[in-house]
Amino acid sequence: MYIHQVAAYLPAEIINNEHFTRLNGLSNEWITERTGIRARRKAAAGENTNTMALEATRRVLAAAPAFAAAEVDLIVGATYTPHDTIYTLAHAVQRELDISDIPVVSISSACSSLLNAIEIVEGYFALGKARRALVVVSEHNTAYNNELDTMAGHLWGDGAAALLLTPERLAPTDLDVRTVITGGAGNIGKADVSVTLKPVEKGIVMPFGKDVFINACQYMTRVTQQVLERNQLSVDDVRYLIPHQANLRITKNVLQQLGLPEDRAVSNIEELGNTGCAGAAIALADTWPSLQEGEYIVITVFGGGYSYGAMLLKR
Length: 315
Hints:
By secondary structure, the protein is an alpha+beta fold. It folds into 2 domains: about 1-165, Thiolase/Chalcone synthase (Peroxisomal Thiolase, Chain A, domain 1), CATH 3.40.47; about 175-315, Peroxisomal Thiolase, Chain A, domain 1 (3-Layer(aba) Sandwich). The protein has helices at about 20-25, 30-35, 50-60, 90-95, 115-125, 210-230, 250-260, 270, 280-285, and strands at about 1-10, 15, 40, 75-80, 105, 135-140, 160-165, 175-185, 195, 205, 240-245, 295-305, 305-315. The strands form 3 sheets. Strands 5-4-6-7-1-8-13-12-11 form a 9-stranded mixed sheet, sandwiched between helices. A two-stranded antiparallel sheet has the order 2-3. Strands 9-10 form a two-stranded antiparallel sheet. Strand 12 and strand 13 form a beta hairpin. The radius of gyration is 18 Å and the shape is globular. The model has no long low-confidence stretch (mean pLDDT about 95). It holds the Pfam family ACP_syn_III. InterPro entries: ACP_syn_III_C, ACP_syn_III_N, Thiolase-like. Keywords: Acyltransferase, Transferase. This is Ketoacyl-ACP synthase III. GO terms for molecular function: 3-oxoacyl-[acyl-carrier-protein] synthase activity.
């Protein structure tokens, strides 16, 4: 399985930390020290999870002339911040492409959904049920976020990304998907209450951030080691580690446990905040032009709930 192309979309509006200083007294220095976040993007009044997904889709197809939109035979969308829980972002993408009678799937496993979506594609390819897949990840966190919440209101940003996948290589720049491992850890720690979004009651809340931190560091490190061991590789073989963009302190902790220098990690949280399941895909899009032949990339993720995963790629 190969990733043929990836593209991202980010809303234009930038919300700096000073916004929260004015709103609830949290200083720029405090937010930066605790999270690594200096700014985040906010969707405009006319934007939502679906519109951002559509723009990411347009961009990835425009960047891939060898991948005709009419050939798409599987769409997998992922989000935990849906614009519509019935007419999902996957259906919106299907309507945009005007392709009938193909499978469209929307999933949510919190911030780890990117790899679950890719694993679904892997299954369709293995069964011979698809050959041209489109994965779209999009989060409209600010639609649900409470900015007055001093525990987590400053964490979230909006954004989307789209990936084109095939069972065969279409171009030398394609990324070979060597291994995908995902897992659920809903029975661990405070998985059921640490991060919640209950639309009927309230927006995104994170009352047990420490539990998230501990388990994210543990699982992202462990599953990264597993994908490397499965491919007889060491951390020295990894050119880039792209972690879920949740907290810069988590990224640094994972790097330390793995024994990787900081310049091996790809991070966008400083300017984008936590963009949920779109964060790692956006980071991959940013890194795509600099990837060289023969390089290995690991994407490792962790989501509230809890869920986790890692994927090994080779250019």
